Amino acid sequence: MKHITIKDVAKKLNLSISTISRAFNDKYDIREDTREQILKCAKEMGYYPNPMAKKLQQQCSYQIGVIVPEFLNSFFPEVIIGIQEITAKEGYQLLIMQSNENADQELANIKTLESSMVDGIIISLSKETKDIAYLQELLDNNFPIIFFNRTISELKATAVVFDDYKWAFFATEHLIQQGYKKIFHLTGPKDLNLCKKRKQGFIDAHRKYNLDIKPEYIIEGGFFIDDGIRVVNELIKTNNLPDAIFAVNDPSAIGAIKALKKHGFRIPEDVAIVGFTESRLSDVIDPPLTTVMQPTFEIGRTSAQLLIEQIKSKHQIEPKTIVLNGKLNIRESSLKS
Q1: Is 28 exposed, middle or buried (0-12, 13-18, 19+ CB in 10 A)?
Q2: 3-state secondary structure string, 162-213?
């Protein structure tokens, strides 16, 4: 079967190729009846505009790259759903990649997306990322990039973040107001800004109530269930359990709950637990987990809106940081009877 081209349509209607092109690109300088005649004839002949050629002509691929550290926790998939809600309406497709918390893989992903001619990138950095030279070079060349959740303060870029400090403060304050004295904080990777802010919120809540924090009250854990299990098992082994635990995120908190229950400890009677993120498991696990709800879908939607704004802008946009708010959902894991 012969492939129908724009030349065939032009020859059939005895019109110029430029007139046919203007009809398909919805230009203003063509009569409506002529446009309708061209589109009708093209459909009957089996011709459809080449989308790649159109994208090249418009110097726009209508593709956006998204890079996340991992998919094991529900946080990043929910953010991506929020991104897609906006990009789909604007006609953009997503190319989604994960760094697996590896800085080298992250850089390879960035270069792959760049070579694929995406119009912009939305990224949450890996826990290993320290070298920002390539990212800064892209930003200096006005390549549209939006950072979310995990950022590096040295990068002069637009970011969408959560108020980690404030809600870590409130989560810790809740435990203090419940009467718990010996409260441990299971942190995430120490170099990540969000972990630093959650730790500082934990510390400042203690300062507000004139409570001492010993160095062993802050333990570097991680973001996964296994991290919570590992840390709490060690605390049990050394007979050093606290009255309460504030974990850097829900999976870590859930790991703590699993380890405690396995060894016969009651929650919250023996050890109270508070998480962070409002994962899907928080209201399912026994007992239900007190946790900070982050607006995952709104993080995605806001990131996508800001990126599309950058893509469409003909001028350089001044970098800005959007800080979103949350809510402390109090459940049985932290409540004294």
Answers
A1: exposed
A2: ECHHHHHHHHHHHHHHCCCCCEEEEECCCCCHHHHHHHHHHHHHHHHCCCCC
Helices 250-262 and 225-237 cross at an angle (nearest 10°) of 40
Three-state SS for 105?
Answer: helix
Q: Which two tokens stand for residue 29?
A: 């300088």
Per-residue model confidence as pLDDT tens digits over 237-279: 999 999 999 999 999 999 999 999 999 999 999 999 999 988 8
Q: Say whether pLDDT at 117 is over 90.
A: no
d(CA 275, CA 277): 7
Alpha-carbon distances, residue 226 vs 78, 238, 250, 292 (angstroms):
22, 18, 12, 20
Rounded to whole angstroms, the Cα distance separating 73 from 82 reads: 16
Distance in angstroms (rounded) separating the CA atoms of residues 86 and 91: 9
Q: List domains and CATH numbers for the chain.
A: 6-49 (1.10.260.40), 59-161+296-324 (3.40.50.2300), 164-294+328-334 (3.40.50.2300)
Name the pairing type of β-strands 244-247 and 183-187.
parallel
Confidence at residue 50, expressed as pLDDT on a 0 to 100 scale: 59
Q: Say if residue 86's pLDDT is above 70.
A: yes
Q: Could you give phi then psi for residue 159, rounded to 5 degrees?
A: -140, 150
Residue-wise pLDDT for 161-203, tens only, equals: 999 999 999 999 999 999 999 999 999 988 899 999 999 999 9
* Cβ-contact 334, 175 below 8 angstroms: yes
Contacts of 333 by beta carbon, 8 Å cutoff, 6+ apart: 253, 257, 267, 268, 272, 273, 274, 287, 288, 289, 290
Q: Residue 114 corresponds to which tokens in the numbers above?
A: 């760049």
- pTM of the predicted protein model: 0.78
Between 141 and 204, residue with greater pLDDT: 204
Strands 327-329 and 291-293, how do they pair?
Answer: antiparallel
